[in-house]
Structures are given as C-alpha cells and as structure tokens.
C-alpha cells in the first residue's frame, strides 16, 4: 500500500524572508491558485526518488519490499504533510479497508472486522474483553478504553505503522484484526528543541514542546516531550455534575526518555522511558435527532508507564534485546446521577510484561532469524455503580509465549520464511455479588504458525504468498437486558480463530513510481460477536463461520520534482452465517474504500497538500437491517504550509466541504447517529531550535 511522500524541508540555506509568518501564509493563500501554472520551482533539496521505507513493527527492521504484511507507514515528515494530522485517527482515514466512524464506543473496523473486539461500551467493561486491533506506543499495548475514548497524540513521533490483517503470530494477544505500532523519537546526542501552538474552530487548541540534549557527550542523553490538545464537541451536550462540561474533549501526553550508549561497551544501547497519558471526553459524539438534551456519559482515562529497552550486539551475528514495561491505568465513567440514568463505572489496573529476544544474521546474509519469549500479567478492579448499589468486579490475565522466525534465502531471488508462536493464556473474571454467580477461570493454549515465500526477480520487485493463523481469547461477563431494569445474568464465550491467506506484490516500477498490492482471504472459526437474544439479553456469542476477502492496492508517483501523487484502493467482501443459515454481511464493511492525494511545492518554502477519502455504503448492524444502511460518503482535507529555516507554519482545513453524512446508527431506533465531524479550519506554528 502506498504511503504519503515525506515532506521536504525545502528552504535555501542562509535565506530569510523580510515579512513575518502570518504575511507568508496570507500571501500563500492568494498565490496558491496560480501556483500550478509555475513552470519552475525555486525549492532546494528536492527529492526525485521515492525513498525506501523501512518497517520495524514486526520486530525485525526490513524494507517495504521485504515485508509481506499489508502495511502503511507514516514517518515524522509524512505526518507533518498530512492536513491537520495531530492524532492517530487523522492517519487511519488514509488507509483503505479501514472504517473509523467517529468518537464513540466502536474502534475502527479493519477489513470488516471490528477492532473493538466482540463487544463495546458497557458490555466490554462487564466482560473484561480485549480489542482485536492492537495499538502500541513504544512497546506498550493500550487497553480498549484508552483507544476508544482517548485520542492518541502524534507529537514527537518517529514513525507510525498500521498493519491490516492478523498479527497474532508476532504481536501475540489482541492483534487478530491488525496492529498499530507507534514509535516515539529517542534522545539525541546533539541539542534540539521545538515548540508548537495550534488553534482552530470549536475552541481547538494544541500546545506542545520537546527538548533533547546530551548529558555525557556521545554516551548519555535525555528527551522530554509534552502535548496538550483540546476541543469542544460539535454535539450539543448538557453539563452536569460530577462530569462537568460534557462537550469538553482533552488529551495530555508527557514523556521523558534517557538514552545510554557507553563508549566502553561497543554495541550496547539502552533506553528508559516514563510516559503519562490522560484524556477526557463524551463516551460518544452521536447526535440524537429527537433533539432531547443529552446528558452524555463522560469517560476519563489515565495511565502511567515505565519502559526499559535494551539492545546489545554480542558479535557480528548475534544481538540480544529486551523490552520491559510496567504500567498503571485507571478509567472513570461519569453519568447523570438521576436514578433512571446513573450507571457509573470505575477501573483501576496494572500491567507488566517482559520480552527478551535474540537475533541472528549469518555473515553471508542468507539466514535471518529471531527467537524470543514474552511474559504478560495484568489485573484490574472494577465497580459498576447505579442508583441503588455498588457492584465490584475483578479480572486478571496471565500470558506466557515463545516465538521464533526464520528467513532463509533459497536462491538469490527466492526467500522462505517460517514462524511460529506458542501462547498460553489464563483469564479470570469474577463478580463479587453472589447474585450474579460469575466466577470464570479458564486457560487456553494455542499455536500460531506462519509460512511465507517471496520471489524477487529484480531489485525492488517482489511477488509472494503467505499464510498465518490468528486468534482472540474467550472470556465471560454479565449480560444486561435490553428491557430496562431487568437485571444482569452471567455468560461465557469461547475463543475465535482466523486463518489468513495473502498474495502480495511490491513493484518499484522506476525511481519515481511505486505500486503495492495485497490480496487476502480470511477464514474465521467461532467468531465472537455481540447478539441480542429473544428474551432481551445482550451478550457475546460465537458464530460458527465467517469469511472476508478482498485487496489493498496503493501507488505513489513523483510526477515532477515539485508534485507528489498517491492513491489507495480497498476492495472487500464479507459474509457470516446466522443460526438460521442465512448469510449476512459484517457491519461497517464497505465493498470499496479509497483515497487519493497530492503534495505540491512552489515558490521557496511553500507546500500545498490535499487528500480526498471515499467510503462505500455499509450496514450499521449485524442483522443488515435496511434502515441502518449507511450511504457512501466522501471527505476532503487540505493544508498550506510555509517551511522556513527554523520552523513551519500551516493553515489547514479538515472536511473541507463540510460534509455531514451519517457514519453509523448507534441504536436500532435510528434516533442516535454518528456523523462526520464538521469542517474545521485552523492554523499552527512550530519553531525548532
């Protein structure tokens, strides 16, 4: 799949402008209409070749031509060049076969599979379920509530990689739909710093800063970063206590890193990172078309994590690495305290994981291998608080796994990769109130193999086939009854499995044209899905069979030394069978998605970038109710940037034409709808020192 071209720091050395930044932006807007008629650009440092992308999210650094997974990569410059991109959701819309309906209980779907897991909202909280879409920052996987209810910052980010399809064989748990791997910048052995301020409609603001400097020259360095983003919801929500202003959406991220590379120990590198993240916002930005005042539940999330990474090159062939993470997290759901609406939920938990691995690269380069192990343990205490009682719950997960991967060059043009992961997971879920009789304790063992063969007839040309297995663990929870005040009842659900088959191609047609394709077929067994029984109970059940198939196609073209073009297309078909034998489509699974965009450089330091994203029609519910079908919709975004020697000024517009299409019906009566975010016009200024 095609990634956006990296932005260019197209500034002539030792040149300055005599007018201020605001004047530059205004002049750029006025001049942009004639910019395309320019026959010659004065930009320096132009790139005429598409850079070779290196991916790191599959635990091995390899070029995109050696990567079989359908992946899209955004580096720091690419993020800067994406209109209005400040958090991860701004990038996900540029990936075909991913549907992000907006802020609410549901995470994005990937190839038709709900990244939230089998349940959302309160049902997920009661069941203690985990997402199918794994999102990690510097090795720490985020929880469902952190992903669903808290936007994640892109500030000071080295690289973001989004993988479509099962990643269980390499990522382990919670990755049967795909993975989002986020890597922040490490400290540098030279001084650098930056500050950024942004403003926009609906009281949007961003305040960010970064500082990196050496402590001991070429050995010890530190990096500090901070980002705060705020905005108001476009939905008319009521304020109430204890939630306060339900329209307020806020995210804070603070991170500190130490890098140590002792000169006396060649090949040794270690980093220690401490990160705090918190967010608050309405549980959903759905609109109630009846027009009643919305006392919307408000979610607050926070986490504090410590990560220790170590890499030691033992000799020319062997490298030892270790990743250790400890984190504490908490979530609070605030609701209207009136008796009929009160339904607060609180969670306090902690996680620990350690993952040592050993890499091997033969001296002739024909064998590339890794072997590793992972131990993960988490525990959490929950409370559901209604108008009459407090209901404590608890859950824990312990996962032990061992994995290995071997790539062998059979010939100069044929590589074979075999990989496997053995995982043992114990899941506990208990509700203290004896009336519910929920005391679940189950252990699962699973082997997840992968086989991949790649034919490389020429440099930059790859044709391959792979097959891999993924899974999502089972569990237990409390079913709530859709008939109000009918109470709760315990239930259990089994694990689900997926076999993934893909044919992939990578073509560097020339230094300026690149084409990527992945064609896939996924076969699900025991797929987990939320279902409403005839008695009104809402719970997680297992379907017998489901399948998805389709393709992702992406291309990049450096049309000229000033104009970059990209396009992506996603094709998808899904099917599952109900107990009656009827076949249905999976919800939020459009048969076609796509996007196209351009980046144009003109004058000296000006960059104009824009993209348009298409999402085909799809159903909101698993029953394929005709009234819940979503019509196809478009969204366009644009940005004008002026890059100067010590910074960057931007003027951006998201949802440029202010489309207000419905993206999801969140209730069967169609009164609650998620819609596209209204147009936002904003500006930002970043200064680098």
From TrEMBL:
<feature type="domain" description="TonB-dependent receptor plug">
    <location>
        <begin position="64"/>
        <end position="179"/>
    </location>
</feature>
<dbReference type="GO" id="GO:0038023">
    <property type="term" value="F:signaling receptor activity"/>
</dbReference>
<keyword id="KW-0732">Signal</keyword>
<dbReference type="InterPro" id="IPR010105">
    <property type="entry name" value="TonB_sidphr_rcpt"/>
</dbReference>
<dbReference type="InterPro" id="IPR039426">
    <property type="entry name" value="TonB-dep_rcpt-like"/>
</dbReference>
<keyword id="KW-0813">Transport</keyword>
<keyword id="KW-0812">Transmembrane</keyword>
<keyword id="KW-0408">Iron</keyword>
<keyword id="KW-0410">Iron transport</keyword>
<keyword id="KW-0472">Membrane</keyword>
<dbReference type="GO" id="GO:0015343">
    <property type="term" value="F:siderophore-iron transmembrane transporter activity"/>
</dbReference>
<keyword id="KW-0998">Cell outer membrane</keyword>
<dbReference type="GO" id="GO:0009279">
    <property type="term" value="C:cell outer membrane"/>
</dbReference>
<keyword id="KW-1134">Transmembrane beta strand</keyword>
<keyword id="KW-0675">Receptor</keyword>
<keyword id="KW-0798">TonB box</keyword>
<dbReference type="InterPro" id="IPR012910">
    <property type="entry name" value="Plug_dom"/>
</dbReference>
<dbReference type="InterPro" id="IPR037066">
    <property type="entry name" value="Plug_dom_sf"/>
</dbReference>
<dbReference type="InterPro" id="IPR036942">
    <property type="entry name" value="Beta-barrel_TonB_sf"/>
</dbReference>
<feature type="signal peptide">
    <location>
        <begin position="1"/>
        <end position="37"/>
    </location>
</feature>
<dbReference type="GO" id="GO:0015891">
    <property type="term" value="P:siderophore transport"/>
</dbReference>
<comment type="similarity">
    <text>Belongs to the TonB-dependent receptor family.</text>
</comment>
<keyword id="KW-0406">Ion transport</keyword>
<protein>
    <submittedName>
        <fullName>TonB-dependent siderophore receptor</fullName>
    </submittedName>
</protein>
<dbReference type="Pfam" id="PF07715">
    <property type="entry name" value="Plug"/>
</dbReference>
């Amino acid at each position: 799949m095609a990634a956006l071209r990296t932005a260019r720091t197209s500034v002539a050395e030792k040149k300055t402008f005599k007018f201020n930044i605001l004047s530059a932006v205004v002049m750029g807007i006025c001049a942009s209409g004639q910019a395309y008629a320019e026959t010659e650009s004065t930009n320096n440092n132009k790139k005429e070749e598409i850079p070779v992308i290196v991916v790191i999210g599959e635990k091995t650094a390899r070029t995109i031509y050696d990567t079989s997974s359908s992946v899209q990569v955004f580096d720091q410059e690419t993020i800067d060049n994406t209109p209005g991109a400040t958090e991860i959701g701004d990038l996900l819309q540029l990936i075909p076969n991913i549907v992000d309906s907006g802020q609410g209980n549901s995470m994005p779907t990937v190839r038709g599979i709900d990244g939230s897991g089998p349940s959302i909202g309160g049902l997920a909280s009661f069941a203690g379920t985990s997402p199918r879409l794994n999102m990690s920052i510097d090795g720490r996987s985020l929880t469902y509530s952190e992903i669903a209810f808290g936007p994640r910052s892109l500030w000071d980010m080295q690289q973001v990689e989004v993988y479509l399809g099962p990643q269980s064989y390499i990522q382990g748990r919670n990755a049967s739909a795909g993975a989002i791997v986020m890597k922040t910048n490490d400290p540098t052995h030279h001084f650098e710093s930056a500050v950024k301020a942004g403003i926009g409609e609906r009281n949007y603001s961003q305040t960010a800063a970064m500082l990196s400097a050496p402590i001991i020259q070429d050995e010890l360095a530190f990096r500090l970063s901070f980002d705060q983003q705020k905005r108001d919801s476009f939905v008319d929500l009521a304020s109430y206590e204890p939630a306060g202003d339900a329209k307020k959406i806020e995210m804070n991220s603070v991170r500190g890193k130490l890098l140590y590379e002792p000169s006396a120990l060649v090949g040794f590198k270690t980093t220690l990172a401490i990160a705090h993240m918190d967010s608050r916002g309405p549980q959903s930005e759905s609109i109630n078309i009846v027009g009643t005042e919305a006392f919307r539940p408000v979610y607050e999330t926070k986490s504090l994590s410590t990560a220790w990474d170590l890499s030691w090159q033992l000799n020319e062939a062997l490298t030892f690495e270790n990743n250790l993470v400890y984190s504490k997290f908490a979530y609070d759901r605030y609701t209207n305290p009136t008796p009929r609406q009160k339904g607060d939920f609180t969670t306090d938990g902690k996680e620990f994981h350690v993952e040592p691995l050993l890499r091997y690269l033969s001296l002739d380069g024909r064998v590339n291998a890794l072997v590793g192990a992972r131990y993960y343990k988490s525990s959490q205490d929950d409370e559901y608080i209604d108008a009459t009682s407090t209901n404590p719950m608890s859950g824990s997960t312990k996962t032990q796994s061992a994995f290995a991967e071997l790539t062998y060059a059979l010939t100069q043009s044929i590589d074979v990769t075999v990989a496997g992961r053995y995982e043992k997971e114990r899941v506990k879920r208990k509700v203290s109130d004896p009336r519910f009789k929920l005391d679940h304790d189950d252990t699962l063992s699973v082997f997840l193999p992968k086989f991949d063969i790649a034919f490389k007839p020429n440099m930059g040309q790859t044709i391959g086939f792979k097959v891999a297995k993924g899974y999502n663990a089972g569990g237990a929870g409390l079913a709530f009854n859709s008939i109000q005040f009918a109470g709760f009842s315990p239930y259990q659900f089994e694990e689900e499995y997926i076999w993934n088959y893909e044919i992939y191609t990578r073509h560097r047609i020339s230094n300026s044209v690149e084409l990527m394709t992945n064609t896939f077929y996924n076969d699900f067994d025991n797929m987990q899905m939320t279902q409403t029984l005839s008695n009104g109970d809402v719970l997680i059940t297992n379907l017998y069979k489901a399948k998805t198939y389709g393709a992702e196609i992406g291309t990049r073209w450096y049309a000229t030394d000033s104009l970059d073009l990209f396009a992506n297309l996603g094709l998808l078909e899904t099917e599952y069978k109900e107990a009656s034998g009827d076949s249905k489509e999976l919800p939020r699974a459009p048969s076609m998605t796509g996007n196209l965009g351009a980046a144009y450089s003109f004058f000296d330091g000006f960059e104009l970038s824009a993209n348009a994203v298409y999402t085909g029609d799809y159903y909101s519910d698993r029953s394929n109710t005709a009234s819940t079908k979503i019509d196809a919709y478009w969204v366009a975004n644009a940005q004008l940037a002026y890059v100067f020697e010590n910074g960057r000024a931007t003027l951006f517009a998201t949802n440029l034409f202010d489309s207000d299409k419905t993206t999801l019906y969140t209730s069967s009566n169609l009164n609650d709808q998620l819609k596209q975010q209204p147009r936002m016009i904003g500006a930002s200024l970043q200064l680098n020192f």
